[in-house]
Amino acid sequence: MARHIYVHNPFCARKCPYCDFYSVTDNFLCEEFYKAAIKETELIGSVITEDAGTNPLTDPDGKDTVYFGGGTPTVPDSRYICELLGAVRKAFNIASDAEITIEANPSSVTPEKLTEYRQAGFNRISLGVQSLDDEVLKTLGRLHDSKGAIEALKKISEAGFTNISSDLITGVPGETLDGIKRDIGTFKELGVKHISTYSLSIEEGTEFYRRYSGNIEDLVSPELERSMYHGTREYLQKLGYETYEISNSALPGYKSIHNSSYWNSCEYFAIGAGAHGFLNDLRYGHRDDVRAYIEEMNTVTYDTYKAFLEGNESFLKSLYVEERLTREDKMREVPFLRLRTTDGILLDEFKKVFGVEFEDVFADAVKTNLEKGLLERKERTLRLTRSGLDLANIVIEDFL
Question: Is 265 exposed, middle or buried (0-12, 13-18, 19+ CB in 10 A)?
Answer without folding.
Answer: buried
